[in-house]
Every structure is written in C-alpha cells, then in structure tokens.
Design goal:
This protein is an alpha+beta fold. Helices cover about 35% and strands about 20% of the residues. It is built from 11 helices and 7 strands. A 7-stranded mixed β-sheet has the order 1-2-3-4-5-7-6. β6 and β7 (about 210-220) form a beta hairpin. α7 (about 160-170) packs across α10 (about 235-245). The chain is globular and about 50 Å long.
Length: about 270
C-alpha cells in the first residue's frame, strides 16, 4: 500500500484552506509558524523505532493489518499481520512511530539505486522509473504508511511526523528524487508541501481497488524551501545515522532532533 492510502482512511483537512495551509501566523521567537512550532513540540514526545526484518510479529505489521482490515484492503489471516515480499528486500527500511511509548503510525521506504532497483513503485511504473535509474539517479520510494485509528483522531498532524522519516531518508542517502504513488485527489497535498510533479499516469497496484498516479519531488531543488517552511522535517546528521545505518535496528529508540537542527540552521544557514 502506498502513502496515499492512509490519507483516505483518516480525517485530515488537506483540502484548500486546511491544516497544512494555516501556517501564516509566525512565532517571533524563532521565526516558525505556530503550526510548525506545535509539531516541533509534539516531537518531544515522539520516538522512532526501526523494524527488524527478522521479527515477523513486530507491532508495526499488526498495525498495518488493523488499518487495512478497517478498509477491507486485505483478507483476514490468523497471524493478524500484513507483510509482503518488499519487506524482505535489502534496500527496505521500516519504522514505527511512537508517541508516549505507544505505537501510532508506521512507514517503510526503499532506497532505490541502479545497483539495487527493488521498489514497489517500480513494480507498477517500470517504464517510468527505469530511465531514472539508467541515468544514474537514485530515489526514495515510501509505502505502507498506516496509522492507529484513535491516534489519527487525537493527532491530526500525524502524517507530517511520519513523513519526517522519509524526508530524513532523502537527505541521508542523497537521493535525487522522492516518489509518491497517490490518488489523484491527494496530489495537491504533495504538490503544495513537497513541490511534487506528476511523473506517471494512472495505474492500479495489485491489491488496491483504486487507481493512482506517480509523482516525484526533486530533492535538491525543494530541500531548503521545505526546511524553511516546515522545520519539523529537519534533523541532525547524528539522528539520520542512527536511524539508517546498518546497526540501527540494534540500538534504543531514537528521539527526533528537529528542534536542535532548526536552531543550528538559524545560527549557520550556509552549512545546514
């Protein structure tokens, strides 16, 4: 399931004049909007935990199952988990997002390169994405974005906190693109927040009953604009290393560093 799917199952004001647009009132202390400041404060209660591919009963897989069963996207199974062949790929990274030590959402992504091309998006749009790889570029392909139902109501901005993982991956792996397979009605969110442009036509993914379009954001172009407007996406190199290094699954849960990264950017904008 792609990132667009979670937007269909939670009540978020993504339309014109919605939550993402109510960012005009600035906090004079640090130059960020009240919306951004609220999310940075909420990150103080957040931990990210990487899922080990060897733990097939990690709570993240059960969260997926619960979310997909609410929408009847998957059949019932006695294990009460949802995994697929893409979870086993060497270039797959999967994370749970915890608030106050409770699992509230999850997302996975694939770091796709010419030498490691496994990607859910590429399985649907190979004719579009293979030329990107042939040109020597890499991309981040996020998918399996799911949320706890009660948490999605309690924390309407939860997708931003979850997508922060994807933003960090783009920075850490120096990816040229971040792709998004989305329903047409959700495309304005990705255009507005990430400057995404349409890359592929409408197609259906195997298990889904609706069509999607492929969008892509060019990371080097949008990086600074996104950091300036949405500083909660920012992070330190240390946090990214702990999240995405080979030994990351063996260490303690990781606390976000957006507040610190934002302060460092204000002090030295040329080097952040």
């Amino acid at each position: 399931m792609f990132i667009s799917d979670v937007l269909a199952s939670i009540s978020l004001p993504y339309g014109g004049g919605g939550l993402a647009m109510r960012t005009a009132t600035q906090s004079p202390a640090d130059g960020v909007s009240r919306f951004a400041g609220t999310l940075i404060d909420l990150l103080d209660r957040v931990e990210y935990r990487r899922v080990s591919v060897d733990d097939e009963f990690d709570p993240v897989y059960h969260l997926r199952y619960q979310a997909y069963r609410r929408e009847e996207f998957v059949p019932t199974n006695p294990q009460l988990i949802t995994r697929d062949e893409f979870d086993e790929a060497d270039n797959c990274y999967c994370f749970g997002v915890y608030i106050d030590e409770s699992l509230v959402s999850s997302v996975r992504f694939h770091h796709v390169t010419p030498t490691d091309p496994t990607s859910p998006g590429r399985s649907v749009w190979p004719d579009v994405l293979d030329p990107v790889l042939a040109d020597g570029h890499s991309y981040i392909d996020p998918s399996r974005f799911t949320t706890d139902h009660d948490a999605s109501l309690a924390f309407p901005a939860l997708p931003y906190l979850t997508l922060r993982i994807v933003a960090m991956a783009c920075e850490h792996f120096d990816a040229r693109y971040c792709i998004s397979a989305v329903r047409p009605e959700h495309a304005p969110f990705y255009k507005r927040i990430f400057g995404s442009h349409q890359l592929g036509d409408e197609r259906n993914f195997a298990e889904l009953q609706f069509s999607m379009r492929l969008y892509a954001a060019e990371v080097p172009i949008i990086r600074n604009r996104v950091a300036d407007r949405y500083p909660f996406f920012m992070s330190t190199a240390g946090e990214r290393e702990r999240l995405f290094s080979d030994w990351a699954a063996k260490i303690d849960p990781i606390a976000p560093t957006a507040r610190l990264a934002h302060r460092l950017r204000l002090l030295d904008p040329e080097n952040n």
